[in-house]
Amino acid sequence: MNAPKVKTRGVAMRLAALAAEATPQAFAVAVFAVGAVMIVSAVTPAFGDRLRALAGSVSPLLIDLSHFAASVVGFLLLLLSAGLWRRRRGAYWATLAMLFAGAAFSLLKGLDWEEAGLLALIAALLIPCRSAFNRRSRLLEPLRPGWLFLLVCSVAAALWLGFFAWRDVDYTDELWWSLLTDREASGFIRAAAVLSILALAVAAVSLLSAPGSGRHRPAGPAERERALAALAGADRATPEAWLAALGDKALLFSPSGRTFLAYRVRGRRWIAMGEPTGLKSERRDLLWAFAEMADSWGGAAVFYSVSEDLLGDIATLGLAVRKVGETAVVPIAGFTLEGKGRQNLRTAINRAEREGASFEVLPPGSASELANELRAVSDAWLEDHNGDEKAFSMGRFDLDYLDLTPLAVVRETVEGRSRIVAFANLLPGVGDPREIAVDLMRHSPDAPHGVMDYLFIRSIQWAETQGFTDFDLGMAPLAGLEDRRLAPVFARVGALVFEEGGALYGFQGLRTYKAKFFPEWRSRFIAAPASSPLPLALLDVALLTSGGWPGLLGLNKRRRAG
Question: Which residue has the higher pLDDT, 520 or 558?
Answer without folding.
Answer: 520
